[in-house]
Amino acid sequence: MLTGLQIAVIGGDARQLEIIRKLTELDAKLSLIGFEQLDHAFTGAAKEKIDEVDFSHIDHIILPVAGTSLEGKVETIFSNEKVYLNQEILDQTPSHCTIYSGISNDYLTEITDKANRKLVKLFERDDVAIYNSIPTVEGTIMMAIQHTDFTIHGSEITVLGLGRTGMSTARTFQALGAKVKVGARQSAHIARITEMGMTPFHMDDIEKAVANTDICINTIPHLVLTASVISKLPVHTLIIDLASKPGGTDFRYAEKRGVKALLAPGLPGIVAPKTAGQILANVLTQLIGEELQTRKEQQS
Ligand code: NAP
Questions:
Q1: Do 133 and 242 reside in the same domain of the chain?
Q2: pLDDT at residue 233 is higher than 90
Q3: Alpha carbon nearest to ligand 1 atom 13, residue
Q4: Any idea where the Dipicolinate synthase subunit A N-terminal domain is (predicted)?
Q5: Which of 201, 242, 249, 271 to mutate to test the pocket of ligand 1 (most atoms within 8 A of CB)?
Q6: Is residue 257 domain-shared with residue 137, that is, in the same domain?
C-alpha cells in the first residue's frame, strides 16, 4: 500500500488514467494537474491547477511518457490549460521527491539536475521496453494490413535492428508466416537471428539485403534507410519506421521515389492505451513502493 504518499500526476493521455487508477487503489493521495476535462472522478485524487499545489508535500511527480517539451510544457490531453514544469517548482519539493517520465530531453534533464532531484526514465528500463514492444508490434501489424494489398503471410519482411522492439517484431511477423530477414551489426545478434530461424544480414550489407523487400520495418533510431538504400527497394515496398522521431528514414527521398514510408510513433498509446497504461502503472507502483520501503528503513 502507498498510504500517506502524495503524488502529483501532471498531464498525459489515456495511459495516465490506468496509473491514476492503480495509485488511488493503493491509497496514495493524488493531485491531478491538467485533468479538469476528465469526467471520471477518482477517490483520493483532486483535480488542481499547477499553481494551487503545495509542492513541499509532494513525494513523487509523474509526467507523461514524453516528459516535457524543450520549453518545459507538459502535454495535457484532458485540459486546455497550458501547464509548464520548471526548476522553481522542483525546488519546492522535498529532497526525496522523484520525477518519473517515459523519456527525457535536455530541458527536463537540466531542471532535475539543477534542483538535485532524481529523474527516472521508465522507457530506458528493459522490462518496460519489452512489455511495450507487445502493443507496438500489434500496431505495426495493423499498419501493415491497412497500407498493403497483400497478406503478411508469404511476404518478404525486413526488420532493421534486433533490440527489444526489433526482436518482438521479427518473431511475430515470422509467426504470421512472413519470410523475415533481420539486419543487425553485432555478431551475437546475427547468431541469434540465425537461431530464431530467420535470415540475418549485417547492416553494412543493407543495400544488397533489401532488394526483394515487401515491408521494411525499422527500429534503429539512426538514419539507416538512406536515399541510397531506398533506391534499391522495389517501389511497392512499404516502410514502417518505428524508431523515435525523426526516425531512421530519408522520408524526402522515399516520397520522391514513390516508396510509401510511414513514421509510426507512440503505437502502444494509440492501439492499446489501457494495456500501455497498465504496463507503466505496474512498474511505477513497484518503484514507488520500493522507494517508500527504503525511506522507512532509513528512518527507523
Ligand atoms: P533498443 O533495444 O535499444 O534497440 C535498438 C537497436 O538499434 C539495437 O539492436 C541497436 O543495435 C540498433 N542500433 C542502434 N544504433 C545503430 C546503428 N547506428 N546502426 C545499426 N544498428 C543500430 O531499442 P528499442 O527499445 O528496441 O527501441 C527501438 C526504437 O523504437 C527506439 O527509437 C524507441 O524509441 C522506438 N519505439 C517506438 C515505438 C513506437 O510506437 N513507434 C514503441 C517502442 C519503441 P546495437 O545493440 O548493436 O547497438
A1: yes
A2: yes
A3: 220
A4: 6-123
A5: 242
A6: yes
- Quick one: average pLDDT of 20-29? 94
Residues with CB under 6 A from ligand 1: 129, 132, 136, 161-166, 185-186, 203, 219-222, 242-244, 264-268
pLDDT in tens, 137-176: 999 999 999 999 999 999 999 999 999 999 999 999 999 9
Residue 1 lies in a domain: no
Which residue range(s) make up the domain with 107?
6-124+273-299
Number of domains forming the structure of the chain: 2
Residues 6+ apart with CB under 8 A from 124: 103
Indicate which residue's Cα is closest to atom 34 of ligand 1: 244
Distance of CA 176 from the midpoint of ligand 1 (Å): 22
Task: Choose the residue to mutate in 126, 204, 224, 244 for probing ligand 1, maximizing ligand atoms within 8 Å of C-beta.
Answer: 244
Nearest ligand 1 atom, CA 133 = 43
Q: What pTM does this model have?
A: 0.89
Choose among 90, 45, 39: nearest CA to 63: 90
CA proximity to 173, closest of 205, 203, 138: 138
What pLDDT, on the 0 to 100 scale, is given for residue 39? 87
- Residues pairing with 241 in the sheet: 218, 263
Q: What is the pLDDT of residues 43-82, one digit of tens each?
A: 889 999 999 999 999 999 999 998 999 999 999 999 999 9
